[in-house]
């Protein structure tokens, strides 16, 4: 109700508790997806970019398998859902494609409502983020670093 709460500290010298208006505490906000990687409508995404969904609160890692899917022109892209090694409570789920993404291709990242938070609550709604890869192929070559000693007299 809209009653009045009082606190034990009164107006100095009055000896009467000071009334303060009651406040309502909002109900728990529903769990949701707060961010996708890549963000929706992104263009020129690298073909080996991180594909992920980030949740508003810790999720039960046991419920994340298959929660993220990726497709191109309606065809599912094979891959697996992985989570950072942070125990049972995770806020991010990654989709690891079985092969690098194709260049110049439109993809649909989908995060379903099948996962649950640590209290058993699913996300309020599914999320879809469309993105398009760029022209470059994946750079899978390890970097080469050459270290040369300075010659005598070099500073």
Biggest β-sheet: count, sense, barrel? 5 strands, mixed
Per DSSP, what share of the residues sits in E-state strands of 2 or more residues? 35-45%
N to C succession of SSEs: EEEEEEEEEEE
Rounded radius of gyration (Å) = 26 Å
Q: What is the structural class? A: mainly beta
Helix content: under 10%
Give a count of the beta strands, DSSP E runs of length 2 or more: 11
Shape: extended
**Mean pLDDT, nearest integer?**
83
Low-confidence stretches: 4-9
Please give the order of strands in the largest beta sheet: 4-11-10-6-7
Short précis:
The protein has strands at residues 4-10, 17-21, 33-37, 42-45, 51-60, 68-72, 75-76, 79-82, 89-97, 106-111, 127-133.
Please give a structural write-up.
With 155 residues, this protein is an all-beta fold. It is 0% helix and 41% strand. It is built from no helices and eleven strands. It has strands at residues 4-10, 17-21, 33-37, 42-45, 51-60, 68-72, 75-76, 79-82, 89-97, 106-111, 127-133. The chain has a five-stranded mixed β-sheet with strand order 4-11-10-6-7, with no helix packed on it. The radius of gyration is 26 Å and the shape is extended. Residues 4-9 have low confidence and may be disordered.
Task: List the keywords.
mainly beta; 4-stranded antiparallel sheet; 41% strand; 155 residues; 11 strands
Secondary-structure topology with pairs:
Layout: E1 4-10, E2 17-21, E3 33-37, E4 42-45, E5 51-60, E6 68-72, E7 75-76, E8 79-82, E9 89-97, E10 106-111, E11 127-133
Parallel strand pairs: 4-11
Antiparallel strand pairs: 1-2, 3-5, 5-9, 6-7, 6-10, 8-9, 10-11
């Amino acid at each position: 109700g809209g009653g009045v709460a009082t606190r034990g500290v009164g107006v100095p010298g009055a000896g009467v508790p000071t009334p303060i208006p009651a406040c309502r505490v909002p109900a728990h906000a529903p769990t949701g997806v707060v961010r996708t990687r890549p963000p929706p409508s992104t263009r020129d995404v690298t073909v080996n970019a991180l594909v992920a969904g980030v949740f508003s609160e810790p999720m039960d890692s046991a419920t994340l398998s298959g929660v993220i899917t990726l497709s191109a022109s309606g065809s599912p892209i094979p891959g697996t859902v992985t989570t950072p090694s942070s125990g049972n409570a995770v806020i991010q789920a990654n989709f690891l494609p079985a092969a690098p993404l194709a260049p110049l291709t439109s993809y649909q990242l989908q995060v379903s409502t099948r996962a649950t938070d640590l209290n058993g609550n699913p996300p309020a709604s599914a999320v879809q983020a469309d993105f398009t890869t760029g022209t470059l192929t994946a750079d899978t070559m390890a970097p080469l670093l050459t270290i040369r000693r300075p010659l005598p007299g070099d500073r």
